[in-house]
Amino acid sequence: MLYVEYRVLGHTGLKVSSFVLGTGTFGFWGNNTEKDCAPILDEALAGGINLIDTADVYSSGQAEEILGELLKGRRQNVILATKGGMPMGGGQNQSGNSKYWIKRAVEDSLRRLQTDYIDLYQLHQPDLNTDIEETLGVLTDLVSEGKIRYIGTSNFQAWQVTEAQWASERKNVARFVSEQSPYSILNRSIEFDLLAATAKYGMGVLVWSPLSGGLLTGKYRFGEAVSTDSRAATFAGSLQSIVDPNREENRSKFEAIAKLQTLAAEAGLTLPHLAMAFTQAHSSITSAIVGARTIGQLRETLKGNDIRLSNDILDAIDVIVPPGVTLDAMEKGWTPGWLQADKQRILR
Question: Could you tell me which residue ranges the NADP-dependent oxidoreductase domain spans (predicted)?
Fold first, then answer.
């Protein structure tokens, strides 16, 4: 029952599935127990997915713990990726990309995942307070110790990708082989310059939120009530706002979705299959991360893996949402600290 194809992650020679299982729904963020999560992992592996992505911050470590239990006896069959750097407690140094915290974060992830090594360790977001050379130094040490195989980034800007690559060359230390960013038909911001940077340096690209937080499933309607178990009802903060059908700023997204639904129907596709196939069409994208809450959602998504969009359909999508454009700044994944008012103005 293989669904997926395999692509090489950047210049590593490592073959990874075109779809990645994301585990943001493992734990109290979604499915609380191992019993609830096990069928989703089993279905992913049966479908040929060989790359599993998680993070220490998902459900405050519970996602890693559940994954560690479920992978017992088959750890060697998967490429295991996790992320670190987000706050994992109230302490002043329990976050960021410093040598102090990254070393501890990696050790904590290894313990929760019940493994001796992490195949791909990714910085969850940039840390403006830490020099990239310090971060690369500790990551290189961890690679030398055999605790990490490859290193990657997430939510980096194009110039930060470039800076890191130059630092690796200058200091002769480990270099980032991948970047993980949000990408969907409604959020094409990484096309503007990030994908050019990753291509320049031979990096693989893993994209998250390919269905725009669920908007591209077509289950939401602008101004209409949402189901009680939907993300718009159960999540809080920015995640809820991104899919909130009653948020006025989302009006342009729902207008685009209506046009995309028509386009999908004319092509004989479902809207989710159109959206997932779109992420597979860009030459710089390696894999799309699928974060399913149910086995049915995962199974339906994987059914569309072999869909390839024609140039006519891709051109039509470009008219609805032009290349490099995002319809909602909240979907960019990470808001740079330099956009804060006190960083832009001369204090008087």
Answer: 20-320
Three-state secondary-structure class, residue 157? coil
pTM assigned to the model = 0.94
Domain of 167: which CATH number?
3.20.20.100
**Cβ neighbours of residue 179 closer than 8 Å, sequence gap 6 or more:** 152, 153, 154, 156, 161, 194, 198, 203, 204, 205, 206
- Enumerate the β-bridge partners of residue 150: 120
Query: pLDDT tens digit string along 216-243?
Result: 998 887 766 656 555 555 555 666 788 8
DSSP state letter for 125 = S
Q: Which domain holds residue 158?
A: 6-214+279-309
Q: Quickly state the pLDDT bin for 347 (edges 50, 70, 90).
A: confident
Is residue 52, in this structure, part of any structural domain at all?
yes
Highest mean pLDDT among 158-172, 247-261, 288-302: 158-172
Mean pLDDT of 195-207: 98
What span, in angstroms and rounded, lies between the C-alpha atoms of 250 and 222? 8
334, part of any domain: no
* Residue 338 resides in a domain: no
| In-domain check, residue 185 | yes
pLDDT of 264 above 70: yes
The whole-angstrom separation of Cα 8 and Cα 41 is: 22
CA distances from 226 to 178, 222, 261 (A): 36, 10, 19
Q: Which residues of 236-248 are buried (b: 16+ CB within 10 A; e: fewer)?
A: eeebbbbbbbebe
The per-residue pLDDT for range 241-258, each reduced to its tens digit, is: 888 888 888 899 999 999
Catalogue the active-site residues.
58
